[in-house]
Amino acid sequence: MDGMIEVAEDSAPKDTRFSPSRWAATEKARALVEEVRSQLLSYETKFHPRKRQRRLADQERFDRIVSAIVCDLAHCALTAPSTWRHISLSKRESAQDGASFMTEARIDIIRWMSEPEMDWLELRKAAQVRNPFGGQQSTIRASARLRRYMEDLEIGLEDLGRDPELLGDPVILRGPKLKGQTKTLPVPEGEPVATFRSEMLRLNDWLARADIVCDYPDEHGRPRDTGDRWLRRIFNNGRLDEGGRLYGGFWQSMGKDARLEDLTIGEEPVVSLDFGQCAINIAYAEMGAEPPMGDLYLVPGLEDCREGVKALLNAQLHRPKELIRFPRGVRQLFPKHYKVGDVVEHILRHHSAIRSLLHAGFGIRGFFTESQILMRSLLELMDRGVVALPIHDCLVIALPNASVARDVMQASFKEVTGALVDVEVDGVCAPMPSGGPWPSMEAMPWIRLQTG
Known about the structure:
Elements: E1 16-17, E2 22-24, H1 27-47, H2 56-79, E3 85-87, H3 105-114, E4 121-124, E5 138-142, H4 144-153, E6 160-162, E7 171-174, E8 184-185, H5 193-208, E9 212-213, E10 232-235, E11 243-247, H6 256-262, E12 264-265, E13 268-275, H7 278-287, H8 306-318, H9 340-350, H10 363-383, E14 388-391, E15 394-398, H11 402-417, E16 423-429, E17 448-451
Parallel strand pairs: 1-3, 7-10, 16-17
Antiparallel strand pairs: 2-6, 3-5, 4-5, 7-8, 9-12, 10-11, 12-13, 13-15, 13-16, 14-15
Helix pairs in contact: 1-2, 2-3, 7-10, 10-11
């Protein structure tokens, strides 16, 4: 390994929560954990001798706490070395994030690891820290000593795994947004949640075992955590038929160009498959109407303002009331003398068939339909042995599987909505990481290749 990455404070990400789900996935990582564990036991014997030996269950719990702390500190050191992890040292909290093994014993372990004789971590106690997650929590990060051991053992992100049992429910229900904030609500039992959860668990297990590689660092020079693949399906407004989009996965935080240029699936370059003008096509399908021919964002009288029409039309789909002013960032997409009422009227005339869905808050229901289409596509592709990475209304696919994925996505849209839709496919014309050429495009002329 080339050594730990230095990151300037102003470009570093924010502090994050400690995750007890991390564990040692390789012999190298287990050797690091064992070094810390054995030294902690020696420290305890010298400075805090026990009257009696730990019971086997208690010792196993002790060992797992040490493993979780070491592995999460190592993850933080590799991905965001200037940041800290928030963790509660309060005795009132008997466990951390659903991890029953993170008992009160974690408090002594963390304190001992921070002592000069140990020097495995840096500790900032709660009174010294402003906690964005509510209340007061202490923060920890890897010490220089722990980082040196990581370098000596050449620890990388591939050495750190995650326990899926501790990654939380993949189905999340959020309440209505109030003053820009939403609360997470209890997820009801029974159907349709049982099906949603079963599908997500299958998908997450499939992605966890997939050959997905990204050897290129992010824009700050930090390695990407390609093991971050746990997806959650988030529903909105306290309803299970609104929202439902998939969130999570390291690829979702990447820019489109970076995904197309830097990712490989099964050692193959990737392409991006998008449903063409998905939200509007779903709205037309909802009304059982045929959309106008051609580009749906090209409205007569507003042909030179396509991007503005796109932004405004999508706002109309989501807003519960008629627009009386341009949404933020949209005004500059139209000539100065254009009034929002006139633009809205042009759009309503051209898309009269879906007029009742505009300014009616349909967008969040449209998201549910979109998410059902994506889930159907993902599950069908999984059954065919094809890995697909979702990004809302888009899938990232290995290039050789582009044709089958395109067919599956179009069939899924038809099955869910009853309508036909185009699937747009983009790729980057760049050599594969190994230096080899792209496969022949003769069989897939509909892929738009950008110059990378």
